[in-house]
Amino acid sequence: MSFTGLIVAAGSGLRAGPGGPKTLRSVAGRPVLRWSAEALLAAGARELVVAVSDETREAAKMALSGLPRWRTVLGGATRALSVQAGLAAIDAPDTEPVLIHDAARPFLETRHMEALLASLQAADGAVPALPVADTLKRAKGGAVQATVSRDGLFRAQTPQAFRLGAIRRAYGAWSGPDEPTDDAAVVERAGGRIALTAGDPRLMKLTYPEDFAMAEQLAGAARIVRVGQGIDAHRFGPGDRVWLCGVEIPHDQGLVGHSDADAGLHALTDALLGAVGDGDIGQHFPPSDPQWRGAASDRFLRHAADRITAGGGRILAVDVTLVCERPRIGPHRDEMRARIAQILELPLARVSVKATTTEGMGFTGRGEGLLAQAVATVETPL
Ligand code: MG
218: exposed, middle or buried (C-beta count within 10 Å: 0-12, 13-18, 19+)? Predict the structure, then answer.
């Protein structure tokens, strides 16, 4: 179902401690605001209107750069005024569903939004809410005055779903000195019926510094480590050098191949592609295509790394084993590690190059060809 997303990111978030407005601080390498925006877009938002303040506008634009279908509007001095500024900026019919979301709740998922939009069909608003689990105390001066029944009490979260015309009218009718603490309260006071959908602890609002530590763990739990392996072999032939792991080695033979025949980088490229289930080197660079004749294999490896990055992944470590009697690999090993680390933009400690022989046995033992094997570990979204 089509809907518009309205993200409130105008607050300073001072309770979250130093490090700037909380919605612009990073969780797992992405600003909190970007997590929210990506989730709304992934769920099918037609457009995102992001209410910002003068102080947060530039940083918010940076946080959202590269994403489609968003624009910022200047919010107001309070959350309610920021929401109203955002609602005024939406160009859609009165019946358009609007999901209003606090930017500081980064872990919303498509299923949350689908449930809200479904509930909105038969209500004036829909809100994700969790039953209160802790015992509630009323206290004063550090001493309990009473235990309050938690029966029927819920904690309201965001996003909250409304029809554009209805939420605009409700805000227009709000009067009184008090500030609404969420948007559903505004519709409630206007006489609207708010439906509850299942809340989620993951929809927690990042408020205090310790919330960010918990958010890092939650973000980490949404990622998995995958392993890929690659194998390649090339035949020895006439020549005076070989390319192995991106390093040129003088030798009394060459390796025969369509490109530079760097079996080390080819095996590693296949390992990276394998870790993310993205085909193999021959699919991405067909040997039948003349443009790869004699090509330097570092571009194959870089391409595989770029595919992983584009999918939101990150290379953790790579390990290459070269199998041959000659040339001797040991003297070139450090340079090979350094070259792979450079191509993949990895710390040297995450790159391993090893060599072995097959003690005269088989095609590598007879010196007919060289074999390379590689293993790559990659972290990707779940
Ligand atoms: Mg090859």
Answer: middle
Question: How far is ligand 1, taken at its centre, from the CA of residue 107, in Å?
Answer: 42
Average pLDDT, the chain: 92
| Cα 264 to ligand 1 centroid, rounded to whole Å | 8
| pLDDT given at position 281 | 95
Q: Ligand 1 center to residue 49 CA distance, Å?
A: 49
Give 263 Cα–ligand 1 centroid separation in angstroms.
5
User: Hey, is 100 helix, strand or coil?
Assistant: strand
Taken in order of first residue, the domains within the chain and their CATH numbers are: 3-207 (3.90.550.10), 223-381 (3.30.1330.50)
Q: What tens digit of pLDDT does each residue of 210-268 get?
A: 898 889 888 877 678 999 999 999 999 999 999 999 999 999 999 999 899 999 999 99
**Which residues, including other chains, have CB under 8 Å from residue 261's CB and lie 6 or more apart?**
234, 242, 243, 254, 255
The answer, as to whether pTM is greater than 0.90, is: no
- Give 351 Cα–ligand 1 centroid separation in angstroms: 20
